[in-house]
Amino acid sequence: MAPSTLSFLPAHAQPLFPLHPRRLRHLGAAPTTPKPLTLAVRCAAKAAASPAPARPIPPPKLVRCPALDRQAARASRLRFARKLLTLLLSKPRGFLPLRVLLRCRRFLGLPRRRPLVPFVLRYPTLFRLFQAPISRPLSPSLSTLAVALTPAAHALAADLAALRGAELAPGLADKVHRLLLMTPRRSLLVSKLAHIAPDLGLAMDFRATLCPRHPDVFTFANTSHGHALQLVDPPPPPPSPLPPPLRPAVRPDRLIDRPRRFPHLPLRRGLNLRRAHRDYLLRFHSLPEASPFEPLEEGASAEMAERRACAVVREVLAMTVEKRTLVDHLTHFRRDFGLPNRLRALLVRHPELFYVSIKGVRHSAFLVEAFDDDGRLLVEDGMLVGRDRLEELVREGKKIRRAQKKGVFPVDGDSDEEDEEDDNVAEGSSEVDGEFGDLFEEESVTGEDWNEVGDGGGIEGDDDEDDPESDAMEEFWVKKAAEEGLVDSGTEHDVW
């Protein structure tokens, strides 16, 4: 390249080698003027003066608690037995024909294509199969067999009824009173109350046994949504709410008993939280207490609304027999108690108060302060006697089945592991919420006679009700049970 083409450069800046035309184009471009320093400093000062936005709390991680998970699994293993007990006790004569009982598969939580007879035979100390006396000349079949309660199951139900009517009647009425006080209208639908009634220890017919005994507290009203239980006007004075949660006291000679110089958050053993989550919970508990029996003031903050929601859930869990209930049961009272829509997220966000067990398909909510580190209840409810006796009868039935296992008759699922697996399958496939929520409706399975099952009830209605394959499977197990002498002959009272 000729030197004359670079005449615009000074002599000392002349290149020793030829330059490319693109480089010449960049060299000829006008340099950009830098921004003044004062502008950059001014913007930096403004950015420093403006407050930083609050960082949202990361979603809390659900830390498993094996001790409470065992309690949830313990309750799920008794789910089928409790549901069938409830169903049979709702009948005046305490039995249902097998053909009619098959229509209640959804309520019992049985999956499709699963026979009912093996589930009934799994509890020989609770249920029995018998044949109608009028069809005794005929061979046992699906149309001539019925399921009834054993004398041990009848004795258990009678003892629990006597316990509710004598010693625990005032406490059960107080539980219902507290539930009604947490609603703004001081009333609850009976169908909603029935969802959580078994967890509270109430009888299946509490509407006819418990409430009429306290006419100065409860009264019934007909609403557009159904029968409702409400408090009398004026309502009784509200009881005092639960005191703040306290962990079990330790030995006085430990250093941990000394007064703390910083805020402390009591957590269960093995639970570690992020710093942002811990700081949020410390600020949350520094807020003033909110009573679950009084509505919030207009214009209250979201933190105070969450404070009251935690107090309401804590009050409900404290009234349950086992200090636990299903999360689905709590969601039925979201509008009545003013709970948030994302109720499960609230329970997980407060691990110092609640624990959500994911054991099984339906999650359970526990009251943490009611259990020790080993998962044992600190204060046991009087109605826990029924659960303990039911577990004893189930264990005794397993011993009987082990003895049958040594013989010829193989019951569906011989080992205990298979029993637990089948119970979990039945628990997970349940599509009807609540223990006996639909048993309080007028046209449900609690009618005067078993003929009313299937006409407008809310717990039956499987699509495969008349499935030939399912009927053939049930007939197979009926014949196997009859061959091994597991079908009773029935009495003159067992007639339908």
Descriptive overview:
The chain is an alpha+beta fold and 496 residues long. The chain has helices spanning 21-28, 37-49, 66-77, 79-89, 98-101, 105-108, 117-121, 151-165, 169-181, 190-200, 206-209, 275-285, 302-319, 327-331, 334-337, 343-349, 384-405, 416-428, 468-483, and strands at residues 95-97, 127-131, 145-149, 187-189, 218-223, 226-231, 324-326, 354-357, 364-367, 487-488. Helix 8 (151-165) packs antiparallel against helix 17 (384-405). The longest helix has 22 residues, at 384-405. Residues 37-53, 408-418 and 425-464 have low confidence and may be disordered.
- Multimeric state of these chains? single chain
Strand % is 5-15%
Please tell me what the overall shape is. Answer: globular
Structural class: alpha+beta
Question: Secondary structure elements and their pairing?
Answer:
Layout: H1 21-28, H2 37-49, H3 66-77, H4 79-89, E1 95-97, H5 98-101, H6 105-108, H7 117-121, E2 127-131, E3 145-149, H8 151-165, H9 169-181, E4 187-189, H10 190-200, H11 206-209, E5 218-223, E6 226-231, H12 275-285, H13 302-319, E7 324-326, H14 327-331, H15 334-337, H16 343-349, E8 354-357, E9 364-367, H17 384-405, H18 416-428, H19 468-483, E10 487-488
Parallel strand pairs: 2-10
Antiparallel strand pairs: 1-3, 2-3, 4-6, 5-6, 7-9, 8-9
Helix pairs in contact: 8-17
Jot down its keywords:
three-stranded antiparallel β-sheet; alpha+beta; four-stranded mixed β-sheet; 496 residues
